[in-house]
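Researcher: Good morning. I'm working through a list of sequences from a screen, and I'd like to move beyond sequence-only analysis. For each chain I'm collecting a predicted structure so we can compare shapes side by side. This is the next one on the list. No need for commentary yet; just the structure.
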Amino acid sequence: MTATKQNVDALRDDVSSLRQRFDSFEGTILTAIREGFDSLRRYSDDLNYEVADNARATRLLKRRVARLERKEED
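Model: Good morning. Structure tokens for this chain:
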């Protein structure tokens, strides 16, 4: 082998190694982003449930107040 061929082969190996590192890094970033969005979605779902639960409780309290007010009027 000539020195030039050895250098070219070494360069190819380095480029291949860099590609693999980049692909791995890209996968890590995508995983972190995906997990972050999933976490935010779950948090949003929990908040929506709490809002709906509070709205239901508010309606029940309004009905109870209305019944008590009608009772007082009688």
